[in-house]
Amino acid sequence: xxxxxxxxxxxxxxxxxxxxxxxxxRVVLDRxxxxxxxxxxxxxVGVLLDxxxxxxxxLKVSKKGKVFHKLDxxxxxxxxxxxxxxxxxxxxxxxxTHTALHILCGVIFRDxxxxxxxxxxxxxxxxxxxxLEHMSADFAQEVKEKINREVEAGRPVKxxxxxxxEAFQIxxxxxxxxxxxxxxxxxxxxxxxxxxxxxxxxxxxxxxxxEVGHIRVVGHESKGRINKRLRIALE
Length: 235
Hints:
Blueprint: E1 3-4, E2 14-23, E3 26-29, E4 31-32, E5 46-50, E6 55-64, E7 66-71, E8 81-86, H1 88-112, E9 116-122, E10 125-130, H2 137-152, E11 157-163, H3 164-167, E12 187-193, E13 197-200, E14 215-222, E15 228-234
Helix pairs in contact: 1-2
């Protein structure tokens, strides 16, 4: 099983690893700082360098039982030591964006009691759907002001891993309408924005809300009677 270094240190940019398996132009490493696509967050991209100095671009990382790194050409053989470097600009934009979604979710849940029904993101842009009956330009403006106050508050963002039983004693840990955590998971990774939000989450985040920067609400729409969407963009 691949050790996901990104889950314990979102700021880790470089690492060393060994290729455990090769499948076509995909490799499985014993450890990686690359985030595999999941939970609405795109995967990291970057490069791997082998012990001969050959460079392989990492085009996509996915987790389907194993963590596969898709490369731009035929990989070196299993057993090769490699040096990995993620595209930091791409990763950091996703960290800021993912944290912005947690701020948005925290404000909507705190002030309007609405659960999340869906969401997706790309670097510096995202959308989130909520179980809300009403949506308007005035509401979107009100939300924009509230979420930017939370950014400016400079709230610490903390990550912890808890036993499943202990984690589920936390009220409202699951903010999505449907609990997407598989029954077999024994430990739950929890992301907390101090004083605002606490959720089970597997993505990468910044360490303080001030790092997110100004958030704009760039769209709002109805996706059904009690399903409304807000779109955000970061500067």
